[in-house]
Amino acid sequence: MDDFDTIPEIADAYAQGAVSPREIMQRSLDRIRQRDPHLNAFLEVAEAHALDMAAQAEAEIRSRGPRGPLHGIPFALKDIFDREGFRTTAQSRLLARNVARTSATCVARLEAAGAIFVGKLATHEFALGGPAYDLPAPPARNPWNPAHFTGGSSSGSGAAVAARMVPFALGTDTGGSVRNPAAACGIVGMKPTHGSIPVGGIVELSRSLDTVGPLTPDVAGNEIVLRVLNGSPMGDLVAPIATTGLRGQRIGVIRRFYRTDMQAAPEMTEAIETAIETLADHGAEIVEVDVPPLQDMADCSRIILISEGYALHRNLLRTRAVEYSASTRARLLPGAFIPAADYIRARDLQHHFRARIDAALADVDVLITATNMETPARLDDPDRLAVQYGRHARAPFNLTGHPALSIPIGFSATGLPLAMQIVGRHQDERSVYRIAQSYHRLAPHATVAPPGLDWADKARKPRRNLAATIALSVAQPTGGFIVCQGVSRS
To answer: What is the DSSP letter of 141?
Structure first.
């Protein structure tokens, strides 16, 4: 059963009768119990609900067969998604008693496909604030080395999937917050075409940029989840993504982002170039493309995000500012000083930059560039963490709305994941997945579970110690908690 970590593997095992939904669910819950105290990925675990739904799925599969590849598959949610009967707190004191009356549209689609909700995952406050220790729960930690950051703000989603506690999780991507934890944690994260997945029932940050995306260990499973989120007909979901090889595929490379506009760490640049060479060696045509400067697009995206974020929080900031994390306030308050003319100009430029990326994609199938510029910093190095928040190439594709996938491409000298980004035309996620799947078939070493997860399985469950979490290391795991074992109501 330990081999069943991806959606296709589990779905195939169910169809063959090799394992049952209750067995997979119990394994997931056992892993959460053993591993999460070291990683702080979960805010709440719906154990009773998950076991009941697993038993129901098992009976349904035995009597009528699986309704699709997500039937009986455990999943978890970044804690800004509503799931009926459970709290949606956005990891904030301001929403500590907020219990959802209905589920988010995208969550309802997953459950209609048979997926089973397991729990809520850590985020940054309101999906913005950054890792902070003045919130109700500590920040999530990286399964490759818990002393390091997981990427934000879908941080718990990245950690939970990388640690194989659940086969998939949902996050949101407003400035890169699905692709960042995917890159940091060595998994696959998709920001689909903006507007292609309903955002009803999700705590809003920036309506012009907010996008729902899945995080998975593999490319094929990611594509399955996205198609359910998109509302694809069930009959279209049974076949895995088809790859026809790389011959005839034209891939545009945006090198300026990680060589000129910003200089990525040498090992990141080398890994991206090696991945590009691998694609070229197997038939892809590689062409250099030019796009507007990275910083211009990032600045434009930031003006929109902060303006819209401040507008949403303006009244609460006036009356309950002390209840926010200090880092959240620091990120929201600048929105009060952005003139309306600057916001309108940024929205106008958004259309211009979208057209420029469309033009870059006119003669190629996909674009490739960096996701992050280096591996994630340590959580006890706040200065480095602050610098890293501006060193990435994710925001341009939030601004332009193009689908963008982060995939792992190897490891640093210190054993942390390296990643690259594949970008496609609007509504053409299929081409992005096709190239990603082709690459991972050529470089299967790029998608592996963090080694040594057994240290968490064998370790005695530590007591929660928020002071000790700051100095957490692989050799001395400490900190972490599970809030609840059932439905939380307040």
So the answer is: -
For the chain, percent helix, then strand, then coil, each to nearest 5? Answer: 45, 15, 45
Residue partners of 211: CB distance under 8 A and separation at least 6:
172, 173, 174, 178, 191, 192, 194, 195, 197, 199, 398
pLDDT confidence tier of residue 461, bands split at 50, 70 and 90: very low
Lowest mean pLDDT among 226-240, 269-283, 340-354: 226-240
Can 153 be counted among the known catalytic residues? Answer: yes
Which H or E run includes 169?
strand 168-172
Assign residue 370 the CATH number of its domain.
3.90.1300.10
Tokens of 440: 């991972």
Which is catalytic among the residues 20, 155, 157, 177?
177
Q: How confident is the model at residue 244 (pLDDT cuts 50, 70, 90)?
A: low
For residue 325, give Cα distances in angstroms to 107, 125, 194, 330. 28, 7, 29, 9
Does 388 reside within a domain?
A: yes
pLDDT tens by residue, 204-217: 999 999 999 999 99
Domain, as residue range, for 372: 7-291+357-469
**Ramachandran area for residue 264 (φ above 0: left; ψ -120 to 50: alpha; else beta):** beta
Rounded to a whole number of angstroms, the distance between the first and last alpha carbons of the chain is 37
The model's pTM is 0.92
Q: Residue 177 catalytic?
A: yes
How far is 226 from 294, CA to CA, in rounded Å? 28
pLDDT single digits (tens) 61-70:
999 999 999 9
Residue 217 lies in a domain: yes
Catalytic residue among 28, 92, 103, 153: 153
Choosing from 78, 208, 431, 438, the catalytic residue is: 78
**pLDDT at residue 12 above 60?**
yes
**Quick check: is 191 catalytic?**
no
Does residue 237 have a pLDDT over 70?
no
Tally of domains within the chain: 1
Neighbouring C-alpha atoms within 13 Å toward the C-beta of 184:
34
Q: Residue 475's pLDDT is what?
A: 27
Residue 19 within any structural domain of the chain: yes
